[in-house]
Structure formats: structure tokens, C-alpha cells
Amino acid sequence: MKFTQEQQDIINSSGNIKINAVAGSGKTTTVIEYAATRPAGSRILYLVFNKAVRIEAAKKFADKGLQQVKVETAHSLAFRHIVFKHNYKVRAQGYKTHEIAALLNLQGNGEKHAEYIVANHINKCIAYFCNSDQRKVQDLNYLDTVTDPKARAFVSTFYDYIIAQTRLLLSKMDKGEIEVTHDFYLKKFQLLNPELGYDYILFDEGQDASPAMLDLFFKQKAVKVIVGDTHQQIYSWRYAVNSLEKADFTTHHLSTSFRFGQDIAGLASEILELKSHLDENFKTSVSITGAGDSKEIKTRATLARTNLGLLLKAIEYVTENKRSRQIYFEGNISSYTYADDGASLYDVLNLYSNKRHLIKDELIRSMKDLAELEDYIEKTEDVQLSLMVEIIKEYENEVPEIINTIKKRHVGNNNKEEADMIFSTVHRCKGMEYDSVELVNDFISEKRLDKLKEDRQNFELSIPKLNEEINLLYVAVTRAKTDLFIPETLLPDTFNSESPHIHVVKVKNEDEELPKKNTFAGAEKNRNKKEKTYSVEQIRTTHEGAYKPWTQDEDDELAGMFSEGCPIKEIADHLGRTRGAIVARIKKLELENFY
């Protein structure tokens, strides 16, 4: 294989280095060749991001006959050193909010649902500490991670209590009184300051490194290599940091992408230039060159910033694309309908519909109504629950049928290649590539950056998050190998290419296309907050036909418009119904089978 000069420089290098590699630049191939050229008998550790990458990378090293290379994730490494030694039991899914409240016998002190809100913050505080490089919980200021005004006010009031209970829960794990979490045993591993005994340690995805693991990495005596892409940092919300900026190592670049051509490379570069809105002195460290020449279209993907944006697009796709039959969700469709804390879309729907006897999740069941849940969401900054509420408010009682429709079209993991369309959020498709990519219009845009700058105080507070929002758009664009379909509102003002591979999608009304809440950085939360509607009368102020029986004339109009390919929103507006009601009626009348 012929290597580029940049790749050859890395392969021939010595000492500690960091590699800033653009998307699709062959970093794994380069790292494998680097390992192959190390002195005979060298013990090499390759630290990767997740289990799937570990399995794939291990096979690639084995195929090259590099048996001396051990591929691990941070957690697989820590698991063997900590869990086995201490005979811990692992809580695979972590602790739910109501479980923490029960374990610690938390008291509400009179404020509504305070025990659950405190428990939620304890969970986050544990994650913050366990991923940090600090040795004590009290050495951190958890309040630094809280941005919502109501949440900050709550945490400030209960701060000492939250910290004390966080330490108590960690102590229970340490003593083996309760099951330990994945974050816990990784933290304990870091605190032991182990010497791993390798000659070379290669640290992949260095732009999203756990500070705890990074601390352990820097303390090793081995030659160290960090590989990553500064502009693909998208996990700071998990308390990850960019190790490329923290390591004082010799810098190498991989600036040529073999995934896509120069047109997409140029657009990706212009998207990164949006960071100049955040920092006037911003300058990209490397110019991206596109050397890909793929022309085939076998895989098609729709990528979104949020679960909400993705589900809305999937609903539109399965109801309007009559010829397509198979779809696939990266990470499994069920994971998009459940929050990490265990609550499901159906629980939120049953709360909304006042069907309390059907609510399974204890936290949701403790809420009197949706208004109470939204108050809880604001005080905990629970984005997942917030998105679920938005979906329920948009589609109401049609949600079960909509989700069932999507699930019926969903192919299994082993048949992914049979899908007509793959759906994914950017976070779930990290490291993947598709022949054709369509972007949902829920990413940051230059227009919105300009609007945010008008409110200077909130803008300055949001700069780190906005920087990551630009990264998300960059990552989404660079998943495409051949064709990219991008809403016109997401294009930088400087973009003027007429590439046959970049298809600009017209947007009638940007505000209609974008989810109204938590789309990015929370910076416009109050400005775009959707009016709460809890009664039929209020809902009918925007959808006059909501909850009214369907007439034969309406069914005929619906069938006619659907057969002519009218968009769901247009049909809903014409008939005065919600989009969810239109989707459900199409299914009930089995119109998809006729048109």
C-alpha cells in the first residue's frame, strides 16, 4: 500500500506524538502500520472508544499478524483490574433516579419532587466526578456543570446535601454494599495509579477523552500516541475533554480524506470556519483535502442532531415514501423511545393522557401532570425527557401507532444493508460512513449564530456548547461518501459550490422545520419555548379539527391529497388536524396499500 507523506511521517516517527486526523483520513490504517514498525517484542496497547471498535480493530491487527498489540476500551481494561479483584457486582444500566432516592432515603424538605431532583443531580455529580481527574468529590464544583437558571437555583439551595449524598452513594459502592456502575470502577482504576506495563500506548478518539483515563494515560512510562480530530469533539456533555489540546506532544496531521471528494471537503472546511463567529482569531489548523472518488449509492442515511428531529423525519419518511419498505435505526429503534433513566415515551404519553394506571416508570408516576414533569425537567436539565415531552405534545395519542409503524418497517441488525434508509443521530453514527447522507434541519446554522450574538451575555456563556454544535454539523457532513443532501439553511453564507454531489434542499420556513426546544445548546430555550397545551380547547386553537370525529368528506379529501403526494404537514393544515392524527388516519384507512 502506498502511504501519503503525512502517513509516512507518522509511521517513521519516534517519541510521544499526537495525530490530528480529519474524517476518513485512514487513521486506523496508519496506526496499524505504526505498530508494525515498532521494535520486535514491543508491548503495545491500543485504547479505543467502544466495544464495537475494539472488536473491529483487534481483527485488523490480528490480520496483520500483530499479536503483540492488545486492543482495549478504558472500561474493559478497568473491569479486569477492579471488578474481578474486589468481586464487585456491576449495575449494567446504572441507577435510575427513583432507585437512588430509595437507596439513600432522600428527603424532599417540602419542595415538590425534591427527592427525585436531588437524586438526578447525585447521578450526574457521580458521573462528573468519576470522569474527572480529581481524587475527591469535594475538589470539584458540580455547580459549574449546571446552566439552566432554575436548575442552578435548585442545586445552589441543596448543594451541600447533594455532595454529601453523592459521597455516601460512592462509599456504598466502594464497600460492595450495592452494585457498582461502569463509571465507578473506571474511577477506582484511575485512583490506584496502576502501571500498565506497555512500551507503547495508542489512545484513539483523543478529542473526547475521559479526564480520568487521560490522567492514567499521561502517568504511564510508555511512548504515547494520541489520535483524534479536534473538530469531532461532541461528547463534552459526558464531561469528555480534548486531549489533543492538553498533550504537549509533537503534532502530526492527516489532512487527506479518502472517504469523500473535494466538494464535500470544501463544505466541511467552510462549516468549521463558522467557529470564527465564536472567536475572531479562529483559524483551522489544517486544510482538508478530499481524495475520495466513490460513485456508487448503496447505503442511504438520514442524520439528525436530536432524537426528536430524527423521529419526526422517520415519521415523515414512512408515511410519505410509499415505495420504500425497509428502514434501520443505528443503535436499535427502542433506544430512541427510552430515556437513560428508564422512562419511556409511553409513560410520558400516559401522564399526558391522565392514564396513570398504565405508567410503569416510578418517577413519571409520581408526577401529577405534564406541567409538573416539565418543572422537574427544567430543574434537572434532563434533555431526553424534554424531547419525549415535545414528541408527545406534537403527536399526542397517535404515538403508539406511529412507533409501531416504524418498528414494522425496521430490519434487524444483521439485515442493515437491506434497509432503504438508515436513520441515526450524529452521536450514534460516529465513525460510520454512508454513500448518501441527508441532514435533518435541526443543526446549528450561521443565521442562528448571528441571532445569538445579539444577546451577548447568553452567547458568551454558550460558546463551548456552540463550538460543539458546529462540530456536530461537521461530523454529520463528513459521514457522506458520494452524495450529500443538506437544507439550505445549514449552508454557510460563503458556500457557492455547484457540485453534482451536494444537493441543496429548499426549506419553506426554517422555524417550521426545526424542533422548537433543545435543538442546540439551549441558548434559545426561552425564546422558542412552545406554548403548553393541556386541554382540547387549547389544542383546537391551533388545530381546529383536533379530537373531532372524522367525516366521510374528510376521509375522501385525505385520500385524494395523500394519493397526490401532498406532504403530511400540508394535509394537516388543510384539514385542521395534528400531523399525528393524519398519520394515524392514513394507517387506519390503509391508504399506503392503495397509493
Structural class: alpha/beta
Our estimate of the beta-strand percent is 5-15%
Overall pLDDT metric:
87
Radius of gyration, in Å, reads 25 Å
Number of helices: 24
Helix content: 40-55%
Give the overall shape.
Answer: globular
Defining key terms:
six-stranded parallel beta sheet; alpha/beta; 595 residues; 3'-5' DNA helicase activity
Structure, described:
Helices cover 43% and strands 11% of the residues. By secondary structure, it is of the alpha/beta class. The strands form 3 sheets. A 6-stranded parallel β-sheet has the order 3-2-4-5-1-6. Mean pLDDT is 87; it is low at 510-543.
Topology record:
Elements: H1 5-11, E1 17-21, H2 27-36, E2 44-48, H3 51-63, E3 69-73, H4 74-86, H5 97-103, H6 114-131, H7 149-174, H8 182-191, E4 200-203, H9 211-218, E5 223-228, H10 243-246, E6 250-254, E7 256-257, H11 262-272, E8 289-290, E9 300-304, H12 307-320, E10 327-329, H13 345-352, H14 362-365, H15 370-380, H16 383-395, H17 399-409, E11 421-425, E12 434-439, H18 446-454, H19 456-477, E13 480-487, E14 502-505, H20 510-513, H21 536-539, H22 552-563, H23 568-575, H24 579-588
Parallel strand pairs: 1-5, 1-6, 2-3, 2-4, 4-5, 7-8, 9-11, 9-12, 10-11, 12-13, 13-14
Structure at a glance:
This is DNA 3'-5' helicase. The chain is of the alpha/beta class.
